[in-house]
Each structure stands twice: as C-alpha cells, then as structure tokens.
Amino acid sequence: MKWSELSVHTTNEAIESVSNILHEAGASGVVIEDSEDLMKAREDQFGEIWSLNPDDFPKEGVVLKAYLPVNSFLGETVEAIKLAINNLVAFDINLGANVITISEVNEEEWATAWKKYYHPVKISKRFTIVPTWEIYEPVDSDELIIELDPGMAFGTGTHPTTVMSLQALEKTVKPGDRIIDVGTGSGVLSIGAALLEAGQVHALDLDEIAVKAAGLNVKLNKVQDTVKVVHGNLLDTVDEPGDVVVANILAEIIMSFTDDAFQVVKPGGRYITSGIITAKKTDVKNALEASGFIIEDVMMMEDWVTIISKKPE
Ligand SMILES: C[S@@+](CC[C@H](N)C(=O)[O-])C[C@H]1O[C@@H](n2cnc3c(N)ncnc32)[C@H](O)[C@@H]1O
User: Fold this and answer.
1) What would the pLDDT profile of 128-167 be if each residue is shown by its tens digit?
2) Could you tell me the CATH number of the domain that includes residue 125?
3) Which of 21, 204, 206, 258 is the pocket-test mutation for ligand 1 (most atoms within 8 Å of CB)?
4) Which of 117, 132, 149 is the last residue of a domain?
5) Domain count across the chain
6) How far is the CA of 233 from the centre of ligand 1 (A)?
7) Does 132 lie in the same domain as 113?
8) In this structure, are residues 251 and 276 in contact, taking their beta carbons and an 8 Å threshold?
C-alpha cells in the first residue's frame, strides 16, 4: 500500500489539538518532532544517552507527521485537516508557522518512521512507559510498567497532559477504588489506574479507533479484568459513581460538563482534569468551583495545567 506523509509545522501548544485532528482524519501513528527535544539530554534507566539526529528536528516549533493511505479520498481528507487546524485559532491556540506539506512514502518507511523516537520513559515516581517493541527490565521493585503501542491512538503516554494525569492518579487512587476515564485514547490512564490496584475502571472514548486501541493496550497489560473500555460521549455511558474521575481533554470540553462530573464523583472523591493550556487555567478552576468542587492541587508542566479537585464529603 502507498502512504502519504502529511507534515504540519506548528507550535508546542498546538500538539494535542493537531494530533487529535490527524487521528480523527484516520492517520495511522503521529510522529512529533519537537525542536525542544534536541535541547534536553535524554537518558534511559541505565544512564545511556539517546543520540538524536538534528536533521530529524525542526529549527523551531514542532513538526507533526501523520501517515495517511493514498486513496481517492486523500484530497478531501487533506483539505478537511487544513480547515480543522485553521479553526483552532478560534480557541486561541497559536499555530506558529502553520505550514502543511504532503509527500509520498513507501510502506517500509512508514512502518519504522515513528518508532525511532520512542524509548522507555520514566514519567513519575512509579510509572515507566515502555513501547511494545522494546525489552525493558524494571529498575525499582515498586516500579509500574505500562506497555503501549503509541501508533494507534492519542499519544505515546509522554505528553505533559498524560504525564501529569498519571502523577495525579498516583496521588489519588487507593486500592479497590472505582475509576472513570473520560477520553481514554490509548487507554494509558486506565491501565495506570489498574496497576495502582483500582478495583474497577470504566474507560470511554468518542473515537472508535481509540476504543479499539485502548482495548488492545488493556489486554497487552493484562488488566482486562479491571478495565472495561466502551464507546461513548463524555459521561453518557456512566451509571455508577467513581472514587476518582479523570478527564484529559481540552479545556473547552472540560468546562462544558463540570456539573455532570460533579454528579458522578462520590462525596469525598477526586476529579482530575488535564489537557488545559495555561491561558485557560483560571476559567477551568472557576468552572470547577462553580459546580461545587474544591481545588486541591494545580500541577503545571510546559504550557499545560492539571487540576486535582475534591467533591466535599
Ligand atoms: C488528549 S486525548 C487523552 C488520551 C489519554 N487519556 C491520555 O491521557 O493520554 C483526549 C481523548 O478524548 C477523546 N474525546 C474527545 N472528545 C470526547 C467526548 N466528547 N467524549 C469522549 N471522549 C472524547 C479523544 O478521542 C481522545 O482520545
């Protein structure tokens, strides 16, 4: 099969939204080439430095590469992607250079293109994310390993919004808890919650591809007895309250259902909201408080904010 590589030169702030658009358009795997990654020393657990080739990275900003099958719909798909990206300006998202180019690649190039960027990454006190094709031995006895195939749904698990969500779960989940994961994507947060010994996890996503990917990743991590993945919009499929509800979606979406979220969090339970760009922090805090939540912790990483709030007893 022939594949075309769609390349979007944008900003760090726009990564999540542009990735979502590319996934929704049917892209198989999104590669992120971030100029800032070249600045960071990348060490794995054994102290080995991963050497990155400057030719693979833009001089500034971020390049997202998505792979789309060459078929008769390709022209329309590319136009729809361009339109959706341009519409992000309405959400105050800075698109930077916003240059979109398309070129053809062969299947072999496509299959390996994105794998070279992903290695095991320790992302919190206990969690290490390991791409499925890497062999990794835990270093600490209490280390929790999440195996992921990032090619299938949102994220490699290492996006700041995901990292902070996992750190927040680490702080809040108690053995036996019931967790609700709104917008599960690759299933990473649900798998993390199950590894933290949650009793039940209800994972849901609006995107069928994410539901499938999450289901596969859940099996890969052998937590299918704890995590149930369903197709659904926000809290529509939730009929039992949770001790911890987590939603890593965009600020605008979070603000649209804080009242419903309040209903599904048990008294004394926690609501973790992530995917919030810094500029929207106050708006989201206000919306959470207006629905009755008490803000407990505000975490920040790069341009992103994660808020842990509590429903009063
Ligand atoms: C930023 S990704 C987060 C994925 C994963 N939870 C993580 O932390 O890496 C947001 C996910 O929310 C899903 N989503 C967006 N709108 C939704 C909605 N209205 N209902 C359910 N899921 C939604 C998207 O399909 C996407 O998989």
Assistant:
1) 998 887 788 888 889 999 998 755 555 567 778 889 999 9
2) 3.40.50.150
3) 206
4) 117
5) 2
6) 10
7) no
8) yes
